Amino acid sequence: MSDQIKNRVVGAIVLFALAIIFLPKIFDGEKESQRQAFVKIPTKPVHQQPDVSKIELSKPPVDTALEEHSGDDAKISNKTVPSTVQAEAAKSKQDKVVSKPVAKPVVKPTVKPAIKAQGWVIRMGSFGNPNNVNTLLKNLRKKGFTAYSVPAVPRSGVTNKVYVGPELDKKKLQSLQPRLKRAFKESGVIEKYNPIN
User: How confident is the model over 84-102, as pLDDT tens digits?
Assistant: First the structure.
C-alpha cells in the first residue's frame, strides 16, 4: 500500500473518531443536571440512663427552731426555717393528725362462665366428588332446608361433608329427619355442631 493511501485511511479514522466524540455534544448541548435536594434525617438520639451512683442524696437542713417548736407551727417564722422544711413539717403534722383508714381490697366473687348452648346438625353425607356436593346442596336449599358443606368450597380429593342446620334444639332436627327421608331417601345422622369446621 502506498503512503498516500495509508495517510488517507488514518485521517479518515481520526475524523470519524472525532465526529463520534464531539457531534453528540454539539447537538445535545450542555445537559443541565437537576439534583434533588435531599434532607438529611438526623439520627435517633441515644437515651442514656443517668448515673445514679454520682447523684448525692442529701436531706434538707433541719433548723433547730423546728425541733424546739415541733408542737406549735404558728411560732416558727419564715426567716428561721426554709420553705421546703416548713412544707415537710406541715405535711408530717397533717399525716399524724389525719390518718386515713386503710381500704381493704374488695374481693369479687368468681363467676363461672355461662355454659354455651350446644348446637346440632344433620350430616347428610360425605363425598369425594365436588359435583355431588354442589348438587345435594342445591336440592336441599330448593326444598327449604338450611344447608352448608365443609369445606365451604368443595374440592376434589378431599372428603366434603354436607350438613343441614345448625339448630340449638335437637328435637327440631329430629322432626326434620322424616321430611329428609321422604325428599331424599336419606334421613341423615344428627351430630354436635362444630363452628370451627
Answer: 556 565 555 555 544 555 6
pTM as predicted:
0.41
Residues ≥6 apart with Cβ < 8 Å to 137: 147, 148, 149, 162
- Between the alpha carbon of residue 196 and those of residues 15, 95, 110, 150, 152, the distances in Å are 83, 60, 29, 10, 12
Domain that holds residue 173: 120-192
Residue 56, CA distances (Å) to 61, 62, 174 in order: 14, 18, 82
Choice among 26-30, 99-103, 153-157, 165-169 with the minimum mean pLDDT: 99-103
Whichever domain contains 177, its CATH number is: 3.30.70
- On whether residue 164 sits in a domain, the answer given is yes
What CA–CA distances, in Å, run from 106 to 29, 99, 103, 109? 86, 21, 9, 9
DSSP secondary structure string for all residues of 80-132: TS-HHHHHHHHHHHHHHH--PPPPPPPPPPPPPPPPPPPPEEEEEEEES-HHH
- Prior bond of 166 cis (ω within 30°): yes
> What φ, ψ does residue 121 adopt, rounded to 5°?
-140, 160
Taken as a whole, the chain contains a residue count of 197
